[in-house]
Amino acid sequence: MKRITNWIKHEYRIAEDTDKPTYRDYFIIKFLFWFICIPLTACLWALFSIVLSLIFPSLNDTVNTFIIASILAILMMLFVCPLLELVYKNAHYDL
After folding, report:
1. How many CB atoms sit inside 10 A of residue 14's CB?
2. pLDDT tens, 22-38?
3. Among 2, 37, 51, 73, which one is least packed by beta carbons within 10 Å?
4. Among 42, 20, 29, CA closest to 84
5. Which residues contact 15 (CB under 8 A, 6 or more apart)?
6. d(CA 63, CA 75)
7. In angstroms, rounded to a whole number, what is the distance separating the alpha carbons of residues 43 and 30?
8. 76 near 41, Cβ under 8 Å?
9. pTM of the model
């Protein structure tokens, strides 16, 4: 647990540009982005879409689509954008 906490602190320092990334950091962040963050966001979006269509079946398609698009935008801002920024910052690692 301490190792994970230290790695998160290290990533925070990378995000603030006070620490240098390594190839291992880049590989871990890229793995988390493609295999955890993107599928999690897609599953949550599908779940919200299904729940919304079950709760509000009488809404017209325009309102339903707007609400689902808003939920996707919120999920992107919460999960994808911060991790994508870390992928970019870790891409400039030292060999």
Report:
1. 21
2. 999 999 999 999 999 99
3. 2
4. 29
5. 85, 86, 89
6. 18
7. 19
8. yes
9. 0.77
- Write out the DSSP string of the chain: -HHHHHHHHHHHHHHTTSS---HHHHHHHHHHIIIIIHHHHHHHHHHHHHHHHHH-TTS-HHHHHHHHHHHHHHHIIIIIHHHHHHHHHHTS---
Q: What is the pLDDT of residue 32?
A: 93
Q: Which residues of 26-49 are buried (b: 16+ CB within 10 A; e: fewer)?
A: beebeeebeeebeeebeebbeebb
Residue whose token pair is 């698009």: 69
On whether the CB atoms of residues 68 and 59 are closer than 8 A, the answer is: no
CA distances for 79 relative to 41, 42, 73, angstroms: 7, 11, 10
